[in-house]
Write a structure and sequence with these properties.
The complex is a heterodimer of chains A (about 70) and B (about 140).
Chain A (H helix, E strand, L loop, with lengths): L2 H24 L7 H8 L3 H19 L6
Chain B lengths: L1 E2 L2 H18 L7 H20 E2 L11 H23 L9 H7 L3 H20 L14
Parallel strand pairs in B: 1-2
Chain lengths: ~70, ~140
């Protein structure tokens, strides 16, 4: 896989995420936004643990593993 | 639970912006960068569960089928991240952090740090007052 393909896949995933969020905002009672899904999953302790752990991991991954050149 | 008022909310936002301004420029893998991220995460988890948020409209019922696209997206992102992580060279298989490295602009990193803190605050608010950790009960 070349870098161009990999970056293209990342961009496609970002576009899908924005599209799903936009769909949820435009049709709020038919399709959930990310916050609705997160709230639903976080009814249970395991859901809270996974989502909040994922958020901590994201911060570590983005701001501890990377740096300004 | 403490009701959050506008001055307190503004103070929290200013504090988070100042923190992001400082923390975004810390060197990679340094002890201080670790402390900055995990310290901020603990602060968000603790403060976030102590403040009551303004009520927002909630989705009345989430049909399982409507969650599937979100679940598929999460699986795709995590899967592609792990796939890239175990592949080399990194230039051909960029992870999220290596892409962020390409964003070599400090103001953008500061904005991203603030966005990460805001995301955590938002998610903690979605716990509806439940503790993020197990609620141990002594018998």
């Amino acid at each position: 896989m070349t870098a161009t393909v990999a970056v293209g896949i990342w961009i496609a995933l970002a576009v899908v995420a924005v599209s799903l969020q936009a769909a949820g905002l435009m049709a709020r009672h038919r399709f959930p936004v990310f916050g609705d899904v997160a709230e639903h999953v976080m009814q249970w302790w395991l859901g809270r643990f996974l989502i909040l752990s994922g958020w901590v991991w994201l911060g570590w991954h983005l701001f501890v593993r990377s740096h300004l050149g | 639970m403490v009701s959050i008022r506008r001055p307190a909310g503004t103070a929290l936002l200013v504090a988070a912006a100042g923190y992001s301004w400082w923390a975004a420029q810390l060197p990679a893998f340094s002890l201080v960068a670790h402390v900055a991220v995990f310290g901020a995460a603990i602060a968000v988890l603790v403060l976030g569960t102590r403040f009551e948020r303004p009520s927002t409209e909630r989705h009345p019922h989430i049909a399982a089928a409507t969650v599937l696209p979100w679940a598929a997206l999460v699986i795709a992102v995590v899967g592609f991240e792990l796939f890239n992580f175990v592949q080399h060279p990194r230039g051909d298989h960029p992870t999220m952090s290596s892409l962020i490295n390409e964003v070599d602009v400090l103001p953008v990193r500061r904005a991203m740090y603030l966005a990460w803190l805001a995301l955590g605050w938002h998610l903690v608010g979605k716990t509806r007052g439940h503790s993020p950790w197990p609620e141990w009960r002594w018998r």
